[in-house]
Structure formats: structure tokens, C-alpha cells
Amino acid sequence: MTNNRRQMTDWLPTTKKEMNLRGWEEADVILFSGDAYIDHPSFGTAVIGRLLEKEGLKVAVVPQPNWRDDLRDFRKFGKPNLFFAVTAGVMDSMINHYTANKRLRSNDAYTPDGRSDMRPDRAVTVYSKILKDLYPDVPIVLGGIEASLRRVTHYDYWDDSLHKTILAETGADFLIYGMGELPLKQLIKNIREGRKISEIYDLPQSAFLINKKSIPENPFKEEVALFSHEECLKDKLKQAKNFRVVEEQSNRISAARILQAVDDKVLIVNPPYPPMKEEEIDTSFDLPYTRLPHPKYKGKHIPAYEMIKFSVNMHRGCFGGCAFCTISAHQGKFIASRTKESILNEVKQITEMPDFKGYITDLGGPSANMYKMQGKDLNICSKCKKPSCIFPKVCFNLNIDHSALLDIYKSVDALPGVKKSFIGSGVRYDMLLHKSDDNKVNSANRKYAEELIRNHVSGRLKVAPEHTSDSTLNVMRKPSFSLFYSFKRLFDELNNKYQLKQQLIPYFISSHPGCTEEDMAELAAVTKNLDFKLEQVQDFTPSPMTLATEIYYTGYHPYTLQQVYTAKSKDQKLAQRQFFFWYDQKSRGSIIRELKKINRPDIIDKLYPKKK
Fold this sequence. Notes:
9-stranded mixed beta sheet, 25 helices
């Protein structure tokens, strides 16, 4: 259905006038977001808004409110009947705004025309404080990735200090972390039963602050206490130890309640819900989205929307457990997969869009090839608290059969209107190459690799080896680079077999904890030997609640408590980064000086061999 044939009431209201079109005088929940309002299941604001609507609530959305003027955006709907909901949007606002070198970015993909000035730094905190000043008696519920990753004491890279839980910094009343559908539905049920938000202490996947003398009884099986915020300020080792507890509890099917003292209060973080069942995740994706930006953005280009417009997210969660990644900290390591029917229905909706030309840009998820994967024996999973199911090796209990993915790809490509479907999400080649005891699984995985490379690569296949140094990869929780060689051989073999001219595009990170200049010099030599001139590279950016960030800040590995080197100064980071660009004549002199300094003349000869 085109935008022109739609009514304004097909979107949730963003103004008083739009609310009046629905015959409403007031809203039950007013949702503030740092993103533009795009009514699509890839955007959390739309998902939460539609979920609350399905629960029978009147929901208004305030996308990218102006926090600099007379605050009319914060006043326009008045008080909600139930609560304000506040999110920074799909991305953390600080990562959205700043590069790894703390330079301001010039555009924001989640804003019309990419404008970079439409949300504040620390958007959740700014919005919440304004709302608390204006409406001190109205509860505020936080959600989304920015709040989720700041639920306990955390290191903030941008001002290089340890911060309290975001609940203390914002003055908000309640926090829902991770994927919010199940806890939010239960929260609404509790409110309808007559409970105030300040009295709800037994909701899974929530966090709140409470007076030290009023700690409620624990309704869950276990409980664990972290070192207090004040103790962590004095002792980085205690902060490192805290991280391990939080990460392990986040990765259990049945976890403990977490307590942490801060100021004169106690933070309580209730354990997460079990992974969403198929029907639960289907319900979320099958809500009546228009799949379009709000009409107020007519004629404006929203980069993030253009990128996902014709893509389909098939599952949530990631069991990779990469040290630098926030996905498992937010979505969890257990995979929640949609049914084939739900996925195909979404593809059919896409084929009916007026500007669809027949190409699905991504059939993916946090990692492209984890759909439908879980433990063979869930009793074993219930006892596990490891953050990764595939590091340091693929778990014996993990079912890595790619047959369900093959079936989806072929079924999507068989739909009328679909010319081709591509895989734009990153592929975990370590799972493809793993040799199972089950030959049927090995056969399916080989077929998947062939199907992927032959039919679903739009010229370039993205993979993420991240580094060539095994010691650095070990800190990253990534497999040995030897597996990349194996995958490249397979990729080249299939390209030759089918006479394809496709490129393999590897992603690499510099300045990650555990990485030295010598490691980067060797990376340059290895990638040169493979004929790569690297494009997809980045400096490590510490974001809250990742293993790598805790190592960066504390200097200790939380699991071994051993010290780990990290490049921190601007000069140290630039010294590492330059090795990505060994082929640039401007970098040549500096690289040669650096290699002489670290006594690696052999690498000079590899990068810049003397002409005979």
C-alpha cells in the first residue's frame, strides 16, 4: 500500500492534532525516542508503540524532541495516564554521535536527511531529566540499548569515568532491559491489576532502585550481590569482577537476581525472561506496521530506513559472545527465531511495496546464519553460563544444522515478485567450517555455503575475522585466523566453479585490548599477502557492558584477572591504525619508522620489497 493511500491514523500520533483525529483527549503512554519515527519492525520505538497499542492502550510518540527550546515537544501531550517511556533509539546516542577518536560524526543515519544535531548526547538522561522536572509525579520507564547497557555501574569512554546505573543518573523509576516485549506486557498487566510501578519488584528483565531498608523478598531462585558503585570507584579489580558476574547471569536461562549498592540505595536487576518462543516473536513482527516513515518526513531521506527497507530480520540473539559486541548483552545469547510462515508473510508485504524491484537486500539477523540454532539437549543449556557457544570452540551440544536456513532462502526466492534475495548480515564462517559428528549436518552446511556464495552475494560477501593475531583473537573471543584462510579457499573455489566475480570483504579492528603494534604490523603483512587493500576497518570503541570495555578500563581480564595491554593514547591508536593502510604512500615513511622502532625489519621487506 502506498503512502498516498494511507490515512494519518495508520501511524501512532505524533501531535495533538493527530491524536484528535483518533478521537483521543489524552494518551496512556507517551513514548520519547531519539530516532525519527519509522513504523517498521526493525525500529524499537515502532515495536513498543505497536505492542502497547495491541494491549489496548492509547500511545503517542514524540520522535526526536527538541530539548533546546521552550520544551514544547515535552509538553504537547501533557501527562500520560500511565507513564512516560524513554529510549535513545536503535543506537546508543554516544556511539551515534562520536567516532572512536571522540570526533563528532557528520551524519546520523536515523534522522531525516542524516542531520547530526537532532538528538542530544546521552539522550535517555537528557529526556528523562526534562520530564522529571516538568512532571515529577509521572513514572518514567526506560528501555532500548542505551539504557539496557547502562543498567549497572559502567565505564563511560566519552568522559573516561565510571558512571552509576542510569536509573540513578536519570531519576527514572523503572528500567526494562533487552528485548522489551515480554516484560512490557507483564508490566501493563500488573498496572491493570492496580499495582503502582513503584510497587512492582517481581517483574523479570527489569531494574529499579530502592531504599536499602526496603529491599523486597527475592521471588527468584538465586541472588548475587555485586561490589557497590563506591567500591568500584576505588578499585578497578572489583569493577572487573562485577562484569563477569553480570555477563554470566545475562547468559543463563534461569539466572539470579543481582543487587548493587549505590549512594544510599540498592539497585535491583531481576533476571531475564527465557528466550521468546516462536509464537511470541512472530506476534511482535506481525503487528500492523505501515513499514513506512511517518508522513511528516515526506520527501526526506532517512539512511537507516533506506538500508533496511527491503530486508527481513529472521531471528534475535547471538551466541558468538564477541568481546567487543553489545548484541548478546542486549539481546542475549539464546536465539529466538520466527516461523517460516511469519518470514514469508513479511517478504510478501515487501513485494507489494510500490518501489520494490524484486531484490530482498538481507535475510538476516544479528549474525546471518544462526537461525533456528540452539542446544540439542536444553537441560545442558540450562546449567550453562558461558557467554559464547562457539568460542573457544563450537559447543558439542550446539545444533549447527543450516538446513532450516536453506529452506527459507529457497522458499523466499520461489515467491512471486522476488528475483533474488541477498544476505547482508555478517556470516559466521567458523560454524560453516566446523566438522560435526553428524554427516547430514556437514552435508547441509556445505550445501548452505554453496547456496550462499552462488546465489545470495550481491557482489561482496562481508565476514569479520577482526584480526590475524591469535593472541588478540583470543581476547576478542574470535576463532583463529587459520579458519579465514579455509573459508577464503572455499569462497575462491566456488567462485571459480560458477564463474563468479565476487569479492570477500573482511572486517578488522585496531587498538582492541590485547593488540600490540607488532600484531598490527603482522596483520598488514598477512593481508597484503592475501591481496587485500582493507576498506572495512575501525578502531576499537569502548561501549558499556562489553568484555573488551571492561579490559580497556580496568586493565584486567575479568575471567582471568590477569593484566592485559590496551592502546589508549591518540598516538598509540594512530600507530596501530596506520598499518591498515600500508599501501598508502602517505603512510609509508611513518610505518617504516615504526617497524624499525619495534625491531621488525622483516616486515618492512614484506610490505615494501626492494625492486630487483
